[in-house]
Amino acid sequence: MDPFRITSTKVLTLVTVIDKQNQRILLGYKKRGFGAHLWNGFGGKVEPGETPKEGAIRELEEEAGITVHPDKLQKTGLLLFLFENDTVGLETHVYKAYEYEGEIRECDEMRPQWFDFADIPYSQMWPDDETWLPLTLKGQDPFFGRICLKRRPLTESASLENGVSGLNPSSSTASSGSTTSTAASAGNLSTTMTNTSFTADQPSNGPFEIFDYHLEHSLPSAPHEIALDGTVASYEN
Ligand SMILES: Nc1nc2c([nH]c(=O)n2[C@H]2C[C@H](O)[C@@H](COP(=O)(O)OP(=O)(O)OP(=O)(O)O)O2)c(=O)[nH]1
């Protein structure tokens, strides 16, 4: 049985705010919850009745204190995070914004900070970010990614105990997304990697490591459908 086979998805959002002029990106240090102690974009679960874009705008406001007009929020990708032996996939709608309104502020969940493109703290981010965030920054988007994550070996996780909380990704509640048995779309294959392990001196990017990933640059049109093997049949903007 495929340990990355899913039976349902949860819909999440993730927003990166980019200051093009100064070549920097706004990230937030997650203080608690899923992915705690990692730097990440802003986002979370899409609530019932919300579109992913509406959810993304709400989460950005809640977590960073700033507002982005819907027309200024661009879809940069759709990432499907699959966790070993977890039948719930995280269907994550990824957006970017070059303009915002309001004052950036810290909240009890996130501490925002600007990072120069040259100093993005990948070693303290989810391990897959290094595979797709550069595509956003270089404008090589939108993209679709299927990312399979597995827990790091216990010895490594144990040494991370005080660093990153490794919650069961599907243990929290969220609105449910699509589940279908539709066949996969093809798209332009760009990258595939298997069994990447991290050395002891790069341990800080969370309790998970990449087992395998696939990124492609061509996206089918709406509405998307996630297949049980984690591939996507079409795409929603
Ligand atoms: N960059 C990156 N982000 C990820 C990965 N996996 C993953 O779930 N995320 C993002 C998507 C979401 O923005 C966030 C997890 O959402 P969440 O539902 O736990 O968010 P939350 O703790 O803020 O909860 P809530 O506000 O929705 O209640 O982490 C990943 O591998 N890389």
Automatic annotation (TrEMBL):
Keywords: Cytoplasm, Hydrolase, Magnesium, Metal-binding, Nucleus, RNA-binding. GO terms for molecular function: 8-oxo-7,8-dihydroguanosine triphosphate pyrophosphatase activity; dATP diphosphatase activity; metal ion binding; RNA binding. Residues 165-189 have a biased composition (Low complexity). The keyword Disulfide bond does not apply. Its cofactor is Mg(2+). Residues 159-189 are annotated as: Disordered. Gene3D superfamilies: Nucleoside Triphosphate Pyrophosphohydrolase. One of its GO terms (biological process) is DNA protection. It is found in: Cytoplasm; Nucleus. GO terms for cellular component: cytoplasm; nucleus. InterPro entries: 8ODP, Nudix_hydrolase, NUDIX_hydrolase-like_dom_sf, NUDIX_hydrolase_CS, NUDIX_hydrolase_dom. Belongs to the Nudix hydrolase family. This is Oxidized purine nucleoside triphosphate hydrolase.
